[in-house]
């Protein structure tokens, strides 16, 4: 039940020395503010990094050929070799837990030498020969027209899908790109669609300057025969590509007559493992932020406890009189605990409010200046605020417990003798 006299006494005690109370409250305020800022900054960095993975099949590996370093079956070391289209089906047959195996080829680009032409415009762009499944492995979506399909593959159609950045570079603002022709290293291809990046953190513009050609048409136009430059391989849901990687590499080693112990003949990049490393890094950062913020908060709570001890010391005579008049020790203990909890919660809530305003200000600034690489939407979840409030209540109890115990141990006769 609300006791007006008790709360009036609490306010009188805390306001009797404003400067001391503010210094004490600042420790808790600063601790909770630091905790919120650290967690929100970590979340913003995490959001920015993960935005780069948006739409990307993270359970994916990329594999390419390198020179052999060991002789095998009469073939010398230092041999260069290529994957073949037949290796794609071989991998699918030997490693059934794979969802997508995409063979890829690409044109080499030379700085300063344009390889794509449209009318009087030209530019240097990355051109890939791909299968339709590549759209499920990359962070992109069809913006206009369509993407590659298997009819394009079977019929070796000379069609292309271009990034929206290329459309901006080579075409007029209102010009319809569908049905137009681009000349890529002397070969004409018809534009059937454009794509955009799913990532919205400002880094997609360079990626939107790529061109996708049906794998078969690419091989025919640029004399690649059945050679495969590299592969993008994605595991089925519930399976780890990291676990399947040895079987994939072993299969192509056997197919391309590479020594089983030759670790450098085939290069690969395990995106799933790298993504997990990023996840682990951010988990560690969250714990560091929590630990640092909690330590600062604890120092503030210790300050509250020390001040409450001083307050009890100053009120020794008052406590003795109240005890002599028959006041219940629990009533005195409750008074001290309430003062401690009230001071802790008020200062902590002020820290939460300032932390929220700080996050709001940062997000407003980011909205005004545009996306920032690797930093997006710093925030703190409601669970963190709830946990912070819980910590504040517990901290207030702990901060007031020792002074409260000290208060009820005061003997009335000794307290009355205190000057």
From TrEMBL:
Residue ranges annotated for the MacB-like periplasmic core domain, each copy included? 21-243
State a single Pfam family of this protein.
MacB_PCD
Main subcellular location:
membrane
Report membrane topology.
Answer: Multi-pass membrane protein
Which of UniProt's keywords are assigned here?
Cell membrane, Membrane, Transmembrane, Transmembrane helix
Per the UniProt entry, the signal peptide is none
| Domain ABC3 transporter permease C-terminal span(s) in chain numbering | 290-410
Coiled-coil residues are none
Q: Where in the cell is it found?
A: Cell membrane
Annotated transmembrane regions: 21-41, 287-312, 341-362, 382-402
From the Swiss-Prot or TrEMBL record, give the protein name. Answer: ABC transporter permease
Q: Which organism does this sequence originate in?
A: Croceitalea vernalis
